[in-house]
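Notebook entry, structure prediction.
Reason for the run: the old model in the group folder had no record of what sequence produced it. Starting over properly, with the input documented here first.
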Amino acid sequence: MNISRLKRAFGSNYLALIAVTAAVSLLFYILNHDFLALDNIKNIMNAMSFTGTITVGMALLLIAGEVDLASGAEACFGGIVCAIAIQAGLPWPLALVAALAFGACCGFINAFFVNVVHIMGFICTLGILGIYNGLVSVVTDNHPVPAYVPSFWKLGSATVFGIFPLPFVIMVVLMVAYGLVLTRTNFGRNIFMIGGNRRAARLCGINPSRIVTALYVNNGMLAALAGVILTARMHNASPMAASTGAIDAITAAVLGGISFLGGVGGMGGCFIGILLITVFSAGLTAIGLPSYWQIVAQGAILVFALSADFFNSKARRKRLERDEIKRRREFARNKEES
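New structure, fully documented this time:
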C-alpha cells in the first residue's frame, strides 16, 4: 500500500501521530530493552484502558463544544461508591449499577448548570471538581476503601486470549461502538452540528440542550465505569486515584484531532492519542525519570496539543472563509451570465 492510500485510509494527521508513537516507542526501547516486553505492553494496555474509557465520553462532549473537568473526580467517586456498596453486602454487579447511576447523576448536575443556569461547562465543572474532591476526602477520611471480592477483581485483571487485558478490550469495544454512533447515526451527526454551529443546529430543528444533557450523563457514566474497573484492578478505591483523569482525556482527545472548540474529530484519533501519551508516560517511568518531571512532560504535551488545535482551527476558519468568498463570486458570476 502506497502513502497516498494510507492517507486516504487514516488521514495525514493520524499517520503523523502513528509515526510519532512508533518513534517514541523505539527511543524508549533503545534506552531500556524491557520496554517492549510482553508484561510491560500489558501494563501499557491496562493504563490505556482507564484514560481511554474516560476519553470516550470526553470526546463526545468536546465535539459538541462542551467539556467536563470533573471527569477524573467522577471516576474516583464512582469507584468509591462501588466499593462502599460491596462493603454493604451488595453483589458486585449491583454495586457497578449503583456506581453508574451515581455517574449519571453527576452528569445530570453538570448539564443542569450548563443548560439551565447557563454557566460555561469549563467553569462549572472546574468548581464541581473541587466539590467532589472535598466530598471524596470526607467520605473516605482520606483512606482507601477495600473491595475484597475475588470475582469482582476479574473485571480489572482478566485477560482475553491470554494477552489482552479485559479493561483494554472494554475500552476498544466502547470506542468502536461510539465511533459508529458518531459516523453512522443522526444523533452523531447532530453532535457535530451542535459543536460546529449551535445556533444553526437549533434552526435545523435540533434541541442542543437535550443532546448536551445526554452527553454529560453519558460522560458521567463512563467516568464512573472507568473508576469501577480501576477499583477492581487495585482491589480498593483510593481517594487519590484518577487525579489527572480529565486532563489526560482532554490531552488524548485533542492530540487525536478533536478540536477543543468543537465540531471536529473522531474515535480513531482518540485511540492513537491515548496510545501516544500512555507510551510516553510509561517510557519516562521505564528510564527512571522522577515523577515530578513526568508531570512537567505531560503538561508540556497538553500545551502542545492545545496550541496545535488552535492553529489548526484558525487555518480551518480561513479555509472556510475563502471557500465562502469563492462560492459567492461564482454565484454572482453565474447570475450576471444568466
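Summary: Residues 49-244 form one domain.
The old model has been moved to the deprecated folder.
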